[in-house]
Amino acid sequence: MKARKYVVKNHFNGIPKREDYEVIEYELPSLVDGDILIKAEWVSVDPYMKVFSSNFPTPYDQFGFQTGVVLESKDPKYPRGTKVVSHAGWCDYCVINPGKFTSDFEIIYKMPDLQDLSDSIALSAAGMVGATAYFGLLEICKPKAGETLVVTVAAGAVGSIVGQIGMIVGCRVVGFTGSDEKVRWLEDEIGYDRAFNYKTTDIDEALKEAAPDGVDCYFDNVGGEMSSIIMNHMNEFGRVSVCGCISAYTAEEDNFPKASTTQLNIFLKQLKIEGFIVLRWLNEWPTAFRDITSWIKSGEIKIKEHVLEGFDNIFDAFISMISGANTGKVVVKL
Amino acid sequence: MKARKYVVKNHFNGIPKREDYEVIEYELPSLVDGDILIKAEWVSVDPYMKVFSSNFPTPYDQFGFQTGVVLESKDPKYPRGTKVVSHAGWCDYCVINPGKFTSDFEIIYKMPDLQDLSDSIALSAAGMVGATAYFGLLEICKPKAGETLVVTVAAGAVGSIVGQIGMIVGCRVVGFTGSDEKVRWLEDEIGYDRAFNYKTTDIDEALKEAAPDGVDCYFDNVGGEMSSIIMNHMNEFGRVSVCGCISAYTAEEDNFPKASTTQLNIFLKQLKIEGFIVLRWLNEWPTAFRDITSWIKSGEIKIKEHVLEGFDNIFDAFISMISGANTGKVVVKL
Q1: Fewest CB within 10 angstroms: A197, B48, B188, B326, which?
Q2: Considering the domain B128-278 in this protein, what is its CATH number?
Q3: How much is the pTM?
Q4: In this predicted model, what pLDDT tens digit does every residue of B310-328 receive, in sequence order?
Q5: Dihedral, CA atoms, A142, A129, A229, A247, nearest 10 degrees?
Q6: Cβ of A258 under 8 Å from any chain B Cβ?
Q7: pLDDT tens digits, one per residue of A257-275
Q8: Is B260 near chain A, with CB under 8 Å?
Q9: Which helix (H) or strand (E) element contains residue A67?
Q10: Residue A267: its chain B contacts at CB < 8 A?
C-alpha cells in the first residue's frame, strides 16, 4: 500500500519555502507485532514546526499532530477502527509502533470525547493548542478573578483560547493582535474587554487606558520590545507565561532583536516569568480537553477554524498560519 | 537631648551627591508610652538606598539598617540595654515606637545571636544582606548539588555570600566581577570555581570554558546584555533569581539599556525567572541568620567588611559602596 509524507530537506532560513520540503511517495511496510496502520483525516500546522526544526538533522519527516483512524492493528491497545490523535505528522497513511516510542515527539492517544464536535477540534481547542492555553495560563499565570490579563498574538490559535479561559476565571482581558479585523473579532465575538492592533497602536498608551489598575498576568507569545513595554505595566507579584517569542523566530543569529532590559521590573515588582513547553503536562492533557470541550458546548469558549482541504495543500496551510493571514486555528482536512 | 540624622533633600540624579543630603541636628522628643530611645552603633550603606529613593517624597529621612542599644524604654519588649537591629537609618540617636509601625520600611528586631562575632555582622552576613543571598538563592534558584551557579556582582556584599552558599549546597560556582583584584579574592580566598573580570572578558567565551555543562542557576544582579548572554548558556528548567539590575540603575528614562530579548531562551529552555525583595521573608530571617552565623563560625563562609568610622563619613561610605571601590560589605562604626 502506498503512502505519502512531507520530508524537510533543508532547515528553514526565514519563512519556510516549498523547496525546503519534498513530498515522498513510498510503499508502507507490512505490519509487525505492535504496529498500527493509521489513515490520517485531519492534519495540523503550528508554529513549533518552524521553531523546533533546528533540533532535527535533515532530512526528517515533518512532525505534527493529526487525527486518524486505525485501519489495521497489531497493538491490542489501538484496535482496528479506533480514532486516534498522533504526532505522526504530515502524511496520509502511516505505520507506527506505539510500544516502541522513545522520544518526546512520538505521541499517540485515543481521540478524546468531543461531545459531537468535529474531530478537527482534537487538533485545536481540545488538542495541543488548547492544552498550551489551559496549562500555560492556569499553571503559570495562576490568574484570579478581578485580575487583568494581557495576551499577545491574541487572535491566534492559542491566544484566543487563553483570553477566553481568562474570562471564565473572571479576569479583565486585554489583547494585542495584528489587524483591525482581528481586533473586531476579539472584542465583538470572542468578548475580550479590549483589543488593539499592535501595528497601529502605542502599546504604552493602550495599556494606560485599557489596564488602568495594572497588569497581573501576561501571556507572552512575542518577546521583544512589546513585552518590555507590557512589563512596565505589571503589578507587584505579576506572573508572565512565556509561550513563544515571535520577535525572535525569523531573526538571523547576528541580528537578534534587542529590547529594553526587563530585569529592573522583574526585581522591583517581584515578577515571576516562566517559559514552558506543553509536553511537560502530557499526562494531564485529558483534563484540559474535558474542560475545554464542555466550555465549547456551553458557549463559554468560542472557536474559529480555518479549514483547507487536501494533502497537497498542507504546505500552503502552514505558510498561511505563519504569515498570520487567518484568524483562529488552521487545520487541513484530508 | 540632641540627635543628628541625614535627610534626603533631592531625589538622586545618577550618582548621589553630598548636596542631595542635609545633616540635621534636632532635639529628641521625650519618650511617650511605647517609645524607645536607641543609640546607634553601626550603620549600613546599601544599593537599595538609591534604588528605592524615588518611592519616597523628598525630604525624607535616609532609611537603612543600623545596630544600636536601647538607652531608655517605654516598650517592655525592648527594655533598656537591649541590643537591636532597626531600619532607623543614618542617625546617631533616635526615638521610635515599634508598636505603631505601619510601613514595610519600619523594622526592628533584637540582635540575633552572633556567637561572639562583631555586631556589624548583623548589617551584613547576618542581616538583610545575608538574608537576601540566602532566600534569593535557596528559595528561588533552588540549587542542587552538582549544578552550575553563575553569580554577577560576585564580589559584592550579597554576591560573595550567594556563591559561598552555592558551594555549601555543592554547586560549581562561577562569578563575574569588576576587577582583577576581586577575581583573585573570589578564586583564591572565597573559593569560587572560576571568576572573571567582566570588563576584560568575553562573557560568552568565559562561560563556554567555565560552565561546559551549561548553567542551571543564575543569581542576577545586573540585567542588560550580560544577563542575556548568560541566559544563552542556561540548561532546560534553569532558574534565575533577579536580585537587582545595576545596568538600569543609573540610566535615564529615555536611555534605558537595551539587551537581546531573553524570551526565546525562556520559552525553549522552560526557564523560570523571579525577582524578589527580601522583605517578603522577613519572618524567616532568623533562620538565615542562624545558618549563616554557624557557617561563618565553621569557616564555610568567609566574610569581608570594609569599615569606615564616624557619623560624618556615612555619605562617603555610601559613595564608596556604589562605585564598587571596595570588596565586601561597607559598614560605618559610630
Answers
A1: B188
A2: 3.40.50.720
A3: 0.94
A4: 999 999 999 988 887 777 7
A5: 150
A6: yes
A7: 899 999 999 999 999 999 9
A8: yes
A9: strand A66-73
A10: 223, 242-245, 275-277
